[in-house]
Write a structure and sequence with these properties.
Layout lengths: L2 H18 L1 H5 L4 H35 L4 H5 L1 H12 L8 H11 L1 E14 L19 E13 L9 E9 L1 H7 L8 H4 L2 E10 L5 E9 L19 H5 L3 E12 L2 E8 L13 E11 L2 E10 L5 E3 L9 E2 L2 E5 L8 E11 L4 E12 L8 E15 L2 E12 L9 E15 L2 E12 L15 E14 L6
Antiparallel strand pairs: 1-2, 1-19, 2-3, 3-4, 4-5, 5-6, 6-7, 7-8, 8-9, 9-13, 10-12, 11-12, 13-14, 14-15, 15-16, 16-17, 17-18, 18-19
Length: 473
């Protein structure tokens, strides 16, 4: 009990005694007691005045600490708790800079994926190597195909945001396939883990001219890098043979809702840094003649022959690029590469999808050389039983008459059956059976030098992905 409460209790007792005691009532007529009663009343008045003063002082003290009515009810302890509450940092309001940062992050997606597999090659090849595979290159091994981190801030011209950017970092076996060939990249170690990195600007012209600068995944061929977006787990011959990426400048424009065009000028096929002075070009269009049909046509013109080479031992005083000496090649070849690529997708029913790809490649070492040809295509089908289960098939043909793809003149064929199980949101399992065969002995066996006309593999792939980016990556 605090002091004001004790004083109040004392005053109540005195008042009760004055009004209720039978002794005092009996002696009220006695003059000797009158003075005593008057003194008691004066003391009671003084007590009431003192109590009122203390109450006013305590109320003022509580109001200074915090206007919290609970402090009066809790007494001294409540006042102490309220004082601690007041000592806490004040609530900060968002500044315009804070709001700008939050708005930027609201338009940014951060995405991650892990892709692993176990494959078994029934040829039991030496070195456990699956030939002519882009990603599932290992047999009888638990393998990390790729781990990726993707960050994208896409432009949104409808809301006044015309700039955007994207970066894809990649690690694992697929990285070595994409960025490990010194025949294309003179210094692959510099860019090895950067699969894509580009900035975008939507020029305010008509429906919006989209311009990208940097490095991006090639759209030559229907298949792409991320397994979750493909019909099959393994990739086709044509995905393996056609370019994986380009670096340079590209533009696209939608003339109507049904047709758009695109143009590229790039360093080369799979060249982050150029190795000659020629800039490759690509022209193409995408048409939607029907809401269920999507058709892409591309023509690519390139010159894929270097005009210099890096050397480790050469004459003194050679020029250097970041510490690496190099030599110009005398009379470098200037023959051209031509790629005619077309593919289409048809959603026949909500559950059944077909896709078709056709490619024709011509390459010359010198401008006057006889051309080398590679041609063929692939057919795909997918049936979605329900949201969790689907079955896909692929068959393809590649005529490698010039040995441009495999290094040997042969006719390559394969068929693949893939069963999909969407275990959960962002988690996919794929069981796949694939048979490759050729008209020439080419595939490895368990004996060095003993080649087979075919190889058969069984694969189980697992893919996890997380992030805010919707649709295909």
């Amino acid at each position: 009990m605090n002091r004001p409460q004790r004083l109040l209790l004392s005053a109540c007792i005195v008042s009760l005694c004055l009004t209720s005691s039978p002794i005092l009532r009996a002696q009220t007529a006695d003059t000797s007691r009158a003075e005593e009663i008057r003194e008691l009343r004066q003391e009671l008045t003084a007590i009431n005045a003192r109590l009122t003063k203390l109450e006013n002082e305590e109320t003022a003290s509580i109001a200074v600490i915090a206007p919290d009515a609970s402090a009066t009810a809790l007494g001294t302890a409540g006042a102490n708790l309220t004082a601690k509450h007041v000592d806490a940092p004040p609530v900060q309001t968002l500044t315009e800079a804070d709001r700008s940062t939050l708005n930027f992050m609201n338009g940014t997606t951060i995405n991650m994926t892990f892709d692993g597999y176990y494959a078994y090659n029934f040829n039991e090849p030496i070195g456990r190597a699956n030939l002519l595979r882009a990603y599932d290159v290992s047999s009888n091994a638990f393998s990390l195909n790729q781990a990726d981190f993707i960050m994208e801030h896409a432009p949104d011209p409808a809301n006044g945001k015309r700039f955007g950017a994207r970066i894809d970092l990649q690690f694992g076996q697929a990285t070595e396939t994409l960025q490990g060939n010194p025949a294309n990249e003179a210094r692959p170690e510099i860019y090895r883990n950067i699969f894509q990195a580009y900035g975008t600007y939507i020029v305010p012209v008509g429906s919006g001219l989209s311009v990208d600068f940097g490095k991006w995944a090639s759209s030559l061929g229907i298949e792409g890098n991320y397994t979750k977006d493909q019909m099959n787990y393994s990739r086709s011959y044509w995905f393996d043979y056609l370019p994986f990426y380009h670096a340079g400048l590209r533009a696209s424009y939608a003339f109507t809702p049904w047709i758009s065009g695109h143009y590229w000028t790039v360093n080369g096929t799979q060249q982050t840094e150029p190795f000659n002075n020629f800039k490759d070009q690509m022209f193409g269009f995408e048409a939607k003649p029907h809401k269920s049909i999507d058709w892409v046509m591309n023509y690519y013109l390139g010159q894929e022959h270097p005009d210099f080479e890096y050397v480790t031992n050469g004459p003194p005083n050679l020029p250097e690029q970041q510490g690496l000496p190099f030599l110009p090649l005398p009379n470098p070849p200037k023959g051209k590469l031509h790629i005619f690529d077309s593919y289409a997708t048809w959603i026949a029913t909500p559950k059944l999808t077909f896709a078709l790809e056709g490619d024709y490649v011509i390459s010359r070492v010198q401008t006057y050389s006889a051309p080398q040809h590679t041609d063929g295509g692939a057919l795909y089908a997918r049936y979605q039983f329900n949201p969790l289960l689907s079955l896909s098939g692929r068959t393809e043909y590649l005529s490698d008459r010039g040995g441009l793809y495999s290094g040997k003149e042969q006719a390559l064929k394969e068929f693949t059956v893939t069963f999909d199980q969407a275990v959960g949101d962002g988690f996919l399992m794929r069981e796949e059976l694939r048979h490759d065969f050729s008209n020439q002995p080419y595939f490895l066996t368990d004996t060095l030098g003993n080649l087979s006309n075919s190889q058969t593999t069984a694969t189980v792939g697992v893919v996890w992905w997380f992030g805010g980016k919707q649709g295909a990556w």
